[in-house]
Specification:
Mean pLDDT: 86
Shape: globular
Largest sheet: 2 strands, antiparallel
Number of helices: 10
Order of helices and strands: HHHHHHHEEHHH
Number of strands: 2
Low-confidence stretches: none
Number of domains: 2
Distance between the termini: 36 Å
Radius of gyration: 19 Å
Strand order of the largest sheet: 1-2
Helix content: over 70%
């Protein structure tokens, strides 16, 4: 617990200034986090970070993180959209399966593509959220971070106090239905307080969105647990002692931010 606490404080001290100041330094920091997260995911499947597929995955990730107009500008064939760039990488990865005589398989190629889009999508919307209206982008990020943290904390204490029915024992045996509900309730209370201090929308709108954030944050956590359960690993990485890797800490964020942009809340 002591190690977890020290790591959490250090991570907070490092992360928050980048979020507050934004700009190029924040973008570089997000690129670093996204790259580490992708490498963690590929390592679960025993894909070497020094392999050709890993190199291609990182390049594709960086392109996914770029704004649409920037991605178009850096590609020699200027009529390529970002979606077309992704499709081009599909062809490259499939061609690579032939070149190495199926030592790198179709399944591996599918994993690389889905992993890259999953990681890239979450971190792309982290950049998009912060790069909105200067102060509003900062407020939006803090809202999401606070709701996710309160959900986790509320779920933990509600689960310990009232938890009886397992939520999804095959994936995360310690989570309970009562804990999940407690997390949503704690998040709603916090969302109301946040709205009273820093209005984001109407009160009803914030409550509805907070419920979505809390639910999808927990789904994101379960998705990461499913990855680890499937590939037989305890943590996604070891960058954060006592906490695991980047994906172990940001799994909820990767799910929540795209949802908020899809419903046009940010």
């Amino acid at each position: 617990m002591k190690q977890r606490t020290i790591t959490a404080i250090l991570a907070f001290i490092i992360f928050i200034p980048f979020v507050i100041f934004g700009g190029m330094y924040f973008k570089l920091f997000v690129y670093f986090l996204a790259t580490v997260g992708l490498i963690e995911l590929m390592r679960m499947r025993d894909i070497s970070k020094y392999s050709v597929p890993s190199f291609l995955a990182v390049i594709l990730l960086w392109l996914v993180l770029l704004p649409e107009e920037t991605a178009t500008d850096i590609v020699p064939v200027v009529w390529f959209t970002k979606s077309e760039i992704i499709m081009l990488f599909v062809l490259i990865l499939l061609s690579y399966t032939v070149l190495v005589k199926n030592k790198f398989t179709f399944d591996d190629a599918g994993f690389i593509l889905l992993a890259t889009i999953y990681i890239g999508m979450g971190f792309y919307y982290l950049l998009a959220t912060r790069n909105g209206v200067e102060i509003q982008g900062l407020i939006n990020i803090f809202y999401v971070l606070i709701i996710i943290w309160v959900t986790d904390t509320g779920a933990y204490f509600a689960g310990r106090a009232f938890g009886k029915k397992k939520l999804w024992p095959m994936i995360s045996p310690n989570k309970t239905i009562e804990g999940a509900i407690g997390g949503v309730v704690a998040a709603c209370i916090t969302g109301v307080v946040f709205q009273l201090i820093v209005p984001l929308s109407s009160m009803i709108g914030v409550i509805i969105v907070t419920i979505l954030v809390s639910i999808f944050g927990q789904i994101g956590d379960l998705v990461e647990s499913a990855f680890k359960r499937h590939y037989g690993v305890k943590d996604s990485g070891d960058l954060l002692p006592g906490h695991g890797g980047i994906l172990d800490r940001l799994d909820s964020l990767l799910f929540v931010l795209p949802i908020l942009h899809f419903i046009n809340f940010f």
